[in-house]
Amino acid sequence: MDDQSGTAPVAAGTTPVVPGIGHAPAVWAAGLVRLRVNGEPRSGVAEPRTLLSDFLRHELGLTGTHVGCEQGACGSCAVLVDGELTLSCLALAVQADGCAVETVEGIAHGSRLHPLQQAFQLKHGLQCGFCTPGMLVAARALLAATPDPSEQQVREHLSGNVCRCTGYTGIVDAVLEAARALRESGEPGA
After folding, report:
1. How many domains, the chain?
2. Is residue 4 part of a domain?
3. What mean pLDDT comes out for the span 134-145?
4. Where are the alpha helices (DSSP H) in the chain?
5. Residue 8 needs a FRET pair 20 to 30 A away by CA distance; which of 50, 54, 106, 128 works?
6. What pLDDT sits at residue 29?
7. Do 65 and 42 contact (CB within 8 A), yes or no?
8. Are residues 120 and 177 in the same domain?
9. What pLDDT does 15 receive?
């Protein structure tokens, strides 16, 4: 017995015994997470408790996904996981294993801005820029599901994204402009 903890030391090559649970399953150890990020196969090592936002930023180097509140209240960490809007500060990296993840870095078409990004620029839908990645990803999800949203639908959909600078008018105008541009171009989805 270990005098400090009252538990038996763990022998090399065995799984630790967790009081009240028994042997800890191997899944509790850090492991390889494989996913498709912005259309490219990617992988990295993650502890079971690693947040998807931290995995994207620190393990994969995709710093466009911002971390604001770490409580799911601000929307700055929004990404798409298998096409669904996901707050990456509330999701674990291991939950995304095998999934397709789209971050703000995947919105542009190579070096050409996506119509949504162009509209944010044209309509002054950004100021300090901290909320912009989450706003763009959330707006992309909206336009994929609702190609011709009303102003009210845009406001409701973006209500989970906090912006402390713009007052939202430019952001809402940008999403409506992007919807119009996408419809006119015939570009599928958002």
Report:
1. 2
2. no
3. 97
4. 52-54, 115-122, 132-145, 151-157, 169-185
5. 50
6. 72
7. no
8. yes
9. 44
Task: Please give the model's pTM, rounded to 2 decimal places.
Answer: 0.83
Candidates 114, 152, 146, 150; CA nearest to 132 is: 114
Residue 15 lies in a domain: no
Reported confidence tier of residue 190, pLDDT bands at 50, 70, 90: low
Q: Would residue 1 count as lying in a domain?
A: no
Tokens of 10: 């763990």
Residue indicated by tokens 């009210």:
152
Which pLDDT score is estimated for 14? 46
Check whether 25 has a pLDDT greater than 60: no
Query: Which residues are within 8 A (CB) of 66 and not within 5 positions of it... i.e. 6 or more apart?
Result: 76, 77, 130, 131, 133, 134
The whole-angstrom separation of Cα 82 and Cα 68 is: 23
| Residue among 103, 57, 109, 58 at smallest CA distance from 80 | 103
Amino acid at 162: V
Amino acid, single-letter form, for residue 31: G
Q: Who's near 25: CB < 8 A, 6+ residues apart?
A: 15
Cα radius of gyration rounded to whole Å, the chain: 21
Same-domain status, 119 and 171:
yes
- pLDDT of 82: 97
Residue 98 maps to a domain: yes
